[in-house]
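Budget justification aside, the reviewers requested a transparent look at the raw inputs and outputs of the sequence design task funded under Objective 1. We therefore reproduce one unedited record. The lines immediately below are the structure tokens for a 132-residue chain.
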């Protein structure tokens, strides 16, 4: 299993109001933007901006980060072998498969295995033999 990208989560009320300052800070446009289950998300640089009503955002606030991986099944095997547990079972979104897991020390993280088109567009070619 390889970690392809890690996003710090930013919680905002209004996605459009938050993006101009992030565009300036990061120096780029969002790589990804979509609506999902009552919230809006945008990936810009190393930030995942999560917007929407507070009660909708609260459903996802238990995770401290979003980690993009190349093999979600390997994440499950590795985390459970190390004493972690899956807290939200695997589901799908417009970006691919995801789940939430609590590590043995208590940290909770969202892990996502992107669809190949996103990996190619945002990360570039991945050679699993080289760990990237």
């Amino acid at each position: 299993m390889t970690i392809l990208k890690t996003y710090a989560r930013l919680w905002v009320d209004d996605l459009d109001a938050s993006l101009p300052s992030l565009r300036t800070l990061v120096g780029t446009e969002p790589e990804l933007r979509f609506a999902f289950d009552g919230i809006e998300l945008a990936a810009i640089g190393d930030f995942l901006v999560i917007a929407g009503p507070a009660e909708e955002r609260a459903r996802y606030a238990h995770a401290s980060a979003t980690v993009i991986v190349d093999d979600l099944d390997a994440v499950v095997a590795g985390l459970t072998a190390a004493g972690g547990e899956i807290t939200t079972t695997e589901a799908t979104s417009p970006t691919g498969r995801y789940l939430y897991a609590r590590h043995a020390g208590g940290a909770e993280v969202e892990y996502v295995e992107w669809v190949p088109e996103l990996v190619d567009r945002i990360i570039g070619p991945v050679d699993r033999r080289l760990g990237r």
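The beta strands are 3-12, 32-36, 39-44, 47-51, 65-69, 85-93, 96-102, 108-114. The longest strand covers residues 3-12. Computational costs for records of this kind are itemized in the attached budget.
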